[in-house]
C-alpha cells in the first residue's frame, strides 16, 4: 500500500531470519557461505520443478492437480536435502582432517548445529524471497490486492504470514534432519519429510473459499511443533555432549 | 582439552572463507545499491523512443520498443560489437602506453576520469534522486557538497597513504555510478553487451595475444604495478597500535626470509611458510594454507613464521613464539631497515600482512583512452577495470605494489595445493628500496583478493537489469553471480594465474535470468496466488 506496508510485509516474512542472520551467522564467514550455497541449491530445485511443471500450467483450481504438484515438489526437495546431507558429510570430513592437521579443535557439536541451521536458513530465506517477497512490488505502491478465496486480509499479508511459517519449518527441520542423519535416528528422519509434506498439503485447504482461516493456523501448529522438537533435539545433543568430552 | 562449557575457544569455522566473504560483501553492497537506485529512480521503461544517452554502446543502433525482435537483436549485436572493438582498441593502447613506460600519464588520466565519473555522472544520479524524492536542497550547497565528495574520491585514488576503507568505498561508489548509467541502456543491447564483454574478457585474459594477458606479463616481468582501479579486499578495520607493530614485523620477516632464502628450490619449506604466511588474511587464519607449512616445519624450523591471530592460535602459540623469536633475532641482525619498530615480542597479533599495500597503486591507476565524450571516459574506466586479475589464488598483482607482484596472496582454501603453490614467490625482492619498504610496512595489512572494478560494474548491471524486470529474477541472478564468483575463486586456487572473473558469473547469471523468467515465474506465481506454498 505504501512504502511502510511493503517494508512491513517484507519484514514479516523475513524478520526472524534477519535476526538469526545478524546474531549468529554474520560473524562466521563459513556460515554465510553455507547459507548462500543452500539458497542456491533450493533455487535450483525450484527451477527444476518449474521446468517439469511448466507445461501443465495454468492449473486452474483443480485440487488434485495441485496436490500432485505439492507431492512431487516436496519429495524432490526432501531428496535434495539428503543430497545436501551427503555433501555436508564430506565437507565435515575434510574440515576435520584439516583441523587435525593444524592442531585445532575439531568441529564442535555447536558448530555442526550452526552449519545445519545456516543451511536451513538458506532454504528458508530462498523460500521467503521467491514465494513472498518477489511478489511484493505492487505492495510498495498505492494500492493493495485481495485474493478471492481469502478476502479478509490482503494477499501480501497472508502470503507473508504463511511464508514466515515455512521459513521456520525449513530452518529448524534442517537441524533436526542433520541430527537424525548423524545419529541414524529413524524417527527424526521420517519426521522431517512428513512435516514438510503435511504442511504443504495443509495449504491445499487454502483452495477452498475461506480456507485460509483454517489452513494458516494449522500450518502454525506444525511450525510450533517443529520448533519445539528442534529445541528438544538440540537440548539432547548439548546435554549428551556436556557429559563427555566432545570429539565428534 | 576442550570443554564444552568453555566456548571462548574459536573453532575452525570461524575464520574459514573469510577472504571470499570479504570480496562478496562489497560486490553485494554494490549490487544492492544499484538495484535500489534503479527502483527509486526508475529509468524509464516508459520512454519508448529515447535512448536518452548516446554512448559508444548505442552509437550504431538505438533501440526502440517498436522494432521487431530481429531488428533489435541485430542492432544489439552491432552495438555490442562496436563496444567490444572499442574496448579492445583502448586496452591495446593501454598496453602500449604501459610498455612505453608512460605510467604518469596513465595515472593522471585515471585520476581525471575518476573525477569525471564521480562528479558529473554521480552528480547526474544525485540530481535524479533529489528530483524523485523531492529533497529540498539548493544548488550552491549541493554543488559544494558534491564537489567535495568527488575531490575526496580523487584524492583517495591518487594518494598513497590513505585509509583503505575510503578507497574501497569510493571504488564501490564509482562502480555503482557507472553500473547505473549502464542500466539505462536499452534492454537487448544490455544483454548482448554483457555476453560480449564476458567473451571478450575470456579471450583477453587467457589467449596468449590478448591485451590483458600482455599487460599482466609486462607488469610481472618488470615488477611494476599496472595503474588500474582495482578493488582490494583488505580488512577494513583500523589496526590498533600493536597490530601495526605486528604487521610491520611480519612484513620485515617476510622480506628477510625472502632475501635470505637462497633459491627458489629451498622454498619448499620456507616458501610454503612464506606463501602461507602471505596468504592469510588479517583475521582469519587461512588454516588450509598453513597445513602444508606445518608439514615441512621440521626442515625449516628456525625460519618458519606462522602467522595466525592470537585468538586462534590458542595453544599452538608457543612454538610459534619461539620461531618468531628466532626470526626476529635474525631480523635484528640485519640492520637494513632502521625504522623497524621491533616492539616487544612476538605475541601480538601476528597477522599476516600483505607486503604490498595495494593502494600504492598510488601511482598507478590508469585509464586509457581519449576523453572526448563524457560517457566514454567511463567506458575507459571500465576497460581498465575489466582487467580482472585473479591471479594465483586471488592475487591480482595488477595495481599492486612495489613488491613482487605475482601471487603473494592466497586465499586459504586451496587445501592441498600447498607445495605447488608455494614455490612461486619465494624469491622475494631484495631490491626494494628502503623507502618502499618503510612505506609498505606502515601500510601493511593483510592481503585480500583483488577484483577489477569492471567486474563490479558488470555484475551490478546484470542484477540491475534483472531487477528492472522482477525481484525474483534479481534474486536468482544474485545467487548465480555469487556462485559464479565462488567458482572463479576455486579455479583461481587451482590454476594459480590470472583469471577472468566475468565469464562464469555472467554466464550463470544470464542462464538463471532466462530460466527464471521463462519457467520459474509462472510456476511460483501460480502457486502463490492460490496460496499453495511448499
Automatic annotation (TrEMBL), chain A:
The keyword Transmembrane helix applies. Keywords: Membrane, Notch signaling pathway, Transmembrane, Transmembrane helix. It is a multi-pass membrane protein. It is found in: Membrane. GO terms for biological process: Notch signaling pathway; protein processing. InterPro entries: Aph-1. Its main location: membrane. The keyword Translocase does not apply. The chain crosses the membrane at residues 6-25, 30-52, 64-84, 115-135, 155-177, 189-208, 214-235. It comes from the Eukaryota. GO terms for molecular function: protein-macromolecule adaptor activity. It holds the Pfam family Aph-1. GO terms for cellular component: endoplasmic reticulum; gamma-secretase complex. Belongs to the APH-1 family. This is Gamma-secretase subunit APH1-like. It comes from Amborella trichopoda.
From TrEMBL, chain B:
Its EC number is 3.4.23.-. Keywords: Endoplasmic reticulum, Golgi apparatus, Hydrolase, Membrane, Notch signaling pathway, Protease, Transmembrane, Transmembrane helix. Pfam families: Presenilin. Gene3D superfamilies: Presenilin. It is an enzyme of class 3 (hydrolase). It is found in: Endoplasmic reticulum membrane; Golgi apparatus membrane. It is a multi-pass membrane protein. Its main location: endoplasmic reticulum. One of its GO terms (biological process) is Notch signaling pathway. The keyword Signal does not apply. One of its GO terms (cellular component) is gamma-secretase complex. The chain crosses the membrane at residues 20-43, 76-99, 106-129, 135-157, 164-182, 475-495, 501-520. It comes from the Eukaryota. One of its GO terms (molecular function) is endopeptidase activity. Probable subunit of the gamma-secretase complex, an endoprotease complex that catalyzes the intramembrane cleavage of integral membrane proteins such as Notch receptors. The PAL motif is required for normal active site conformation. Homodimer. Probable component of the gamma-secretase complex, a complex composed of a presenilin homodimer, nicastrin, APH1 and PEN2. Belongs to the peptidase A22A family. This is Presenilin. It comes from Amborella trichopoda.
Amino acid at each position: 500500500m505504501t512504502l511502510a506496508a511493503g517494508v512491513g510485509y517484507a519484514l514479516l516474512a523475513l524478520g526472524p531470519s534477519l535476526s538469526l542472520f545478524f546474531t549468529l551467522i554474520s560473524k562466521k564467514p563459513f556460515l554465510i557461505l553455507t547459507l548462500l550455497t543452500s539458497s542456491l541449491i533450493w533455487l535450483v530445485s525450484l527451477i527444476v520443478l518449474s521446468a517439469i511443471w511448466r507445461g501443465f500450467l495454468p492449473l486452474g483450481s483443480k485440487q488434485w492437480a495441485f496436490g500432485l504438484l505439492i507431492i512431487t515438489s516436496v519429495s524432490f526437495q526432501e531428496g535434495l536435502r539428503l543430497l545436501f546431507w551427503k555433501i555436508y558429510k564430506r565437507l565435515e570430513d575434510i574440515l576435520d582432517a584439516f583441523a587435525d592437521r593444524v592442531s585445532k579443535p575439531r568441529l564442535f557439536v555447536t558448530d555442526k548445529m550452526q552449519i545445519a541451521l545456516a543451511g536451513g536458513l538458506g532454504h528458508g530465506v530462498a523460500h521467503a524471497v521467491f514465494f513472498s517477497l518477489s511478489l511484493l512490488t505492487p505492495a510498495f505502491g498505492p494500492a493493495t490486492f485481495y485474493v478471492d478465496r481469502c478476502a479478509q486480509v490482503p494477499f501480501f499479508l497472508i502470503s507473508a504470514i504463511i511464508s514466515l511459517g515455512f521459513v521456520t519449518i525449513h530452518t529448524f527441520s534442517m537441524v533436526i534432519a542433520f541430527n537424525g542423519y548423524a545419529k541414524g535416528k529413524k524417527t527424526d528422519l521420517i519426521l522431517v519429510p512428513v512435516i514438510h509434506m503435511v504442511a504443504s498439503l495443509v495449504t491445499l485447504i487454502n483452495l477452498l473459499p475461506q480456507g485460509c482461516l483454517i489452513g494458516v493456523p494449522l500450518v502454525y501448529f506444525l511450525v510450533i511443533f517443529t520448533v519445539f522438537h528442534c529445541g528438544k533435539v538440540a537440548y539432547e545433543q548439548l546435554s549428551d555432549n556436556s557429559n563427555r568430552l566432545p570429539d565428534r | 582439552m576442550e570443554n564444552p562449557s568453555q566456548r571462548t575457544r574459536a573453532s575452525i569455522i570461524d575464520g574459514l572463507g573469510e577472504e571470499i566473504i570479504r570480496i562478496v560483501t562489497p560486490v553485494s553492497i554494490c549490487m544492492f545499491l544499484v538495484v535500489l537506485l534503479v527502483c527509486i529512480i526508475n529509468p524509464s521503461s516508459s520512454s519508448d523512443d529515447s535512448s536518452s544517452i548516446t554512448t559508444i554502446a548505442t552509437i550504431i543502433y538505438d533501440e526502440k520498443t517498436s522494432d521487431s525482435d530481429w531488428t533489435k537483436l541485430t542492432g544489439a549485436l552491432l552495438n555490442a560489437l562496436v563496444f567490444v572493438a572499442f574496448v579492445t582498441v583502448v586496452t591495446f593502447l593501454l598496453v602500449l602506453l604501459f610498455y612505453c613506460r608512460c605510467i604518469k600519464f596513465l595515472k593522471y588520466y585515471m585520476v581525471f576520469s575518476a573525477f569525471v565519473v564521480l562528479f558529473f555522472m554521480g552528480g547526474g544520479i544525485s540530481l535524479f534522486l533529489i528530483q524523485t524524492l523531492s529533497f529540498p536542497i539548493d544548488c550552491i550547497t549541493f554543488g559544494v557538497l558534491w564537489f567535495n565528495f568527488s575531490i575526496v574520491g580523487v584524492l583517495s585514488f591518487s594518494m598513497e597513504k590513505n585509509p583503505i576503507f575510503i578507497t574501497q568505498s569510493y571504488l564501490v561508489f564509482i562502480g555503482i555510478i557507472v553500473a547505473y548509467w549502464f542500466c539505462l541502456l536499452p534492454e537487448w543491447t544490455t544483454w548482448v553487451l554483457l555476453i560480449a564483454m564476458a567473451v571478450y574478457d575470456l579471450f583477453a585474459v587467457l589467449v596468449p595475444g590478448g591485451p590483458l594477458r600482455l599487460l599482466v606479463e609486462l607488469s610481472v616481468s618488470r615488477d611494476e604495478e599496472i595503474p588500474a582501479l582495482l578493488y582490494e579486499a583488505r580488512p577494513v578495520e583500523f589496526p590498533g597500535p600493536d597490530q601495526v607493530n605486528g604487521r610491520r614485523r611480519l612484513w620485515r620477516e617476510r622480506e628477510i626470509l625472502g632475501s635470505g632464502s637462497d633459491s627458489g628450490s629451498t622454498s619448499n619449506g620456507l616458501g610454503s611458510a612464506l606463501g602461507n604466511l602471505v596468504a592469510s588474511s588479517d583475521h582469519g587464519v587461512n588454516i588450509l594454507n598453513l597445513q602444508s607449512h606445518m608439514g615441512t616445519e621440521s626442515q625449516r624450523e628456525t625460519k618458519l613464521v606462522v602467522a595466525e591471530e592470537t585468538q586462534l592460535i590458542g595453544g599452538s602459540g608457543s612454538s610459534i613464539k619461539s620461531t618468531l623469536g628466532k626470526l626476529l633475532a635474525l631480523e635484528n641482525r640485519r640492520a637494513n631497515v632502521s625504522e623497524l619498530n621491533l616492539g616487544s615480542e612476538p605475541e601480538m597479533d601476528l597477522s599476516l600482512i600483505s607486503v604490498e599495500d595495494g593502494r600504492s597503486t598510488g601511482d598507478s591507476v590508469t585509464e586509457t583512452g581519449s576523453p572526448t565524450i563524457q560517457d566514454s571516459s567511463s567506458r575507459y574506466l571500465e576497460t581498465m577495470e575489466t582487467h580482472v586479475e585473479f591471479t594465483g589464488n586471488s592475487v591480482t598483482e595488477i595495481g599492486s605494489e612495489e613488491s613482487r607482484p605475482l601471487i603473494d596472496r592466497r586465499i586459504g582454501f586451496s587445501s592441498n595445493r600447498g607445495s605447488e603453490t608455494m614455490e612461486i614467490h619465494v624469491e622475494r625482492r631484495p631490491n626494494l628500496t628502503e623507502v618502499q619498504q618503510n612505506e609498505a610496512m606502515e601500510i601493511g595489512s593483510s592481503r585480500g583478493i583483488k577484483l577489477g572494478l569492471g567486474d563490479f560494474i558488470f555484475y551490478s548491471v546484470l542484477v540491475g537489469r534483472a531487477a528492472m524486470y522482477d525481484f525474483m529474477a534479481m534474486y536468482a541472478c544474485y545467487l548465480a553471480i555469487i556462485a559464479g564468483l565462488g567458482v572463479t575463486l576455486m579455479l583461481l586456487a587451482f590454476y594459480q594465474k590470472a583469471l577472468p572473473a566475468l565469464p562464469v558469473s555472467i554466464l550463470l547469471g544470464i542462464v538463471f535470468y532466462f530460466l527464471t523468467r521463462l519457467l520459474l515465474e509462472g510456476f511460483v506465481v501460480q502457486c502463490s496466488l492460490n496460496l499453495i506454498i511448499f
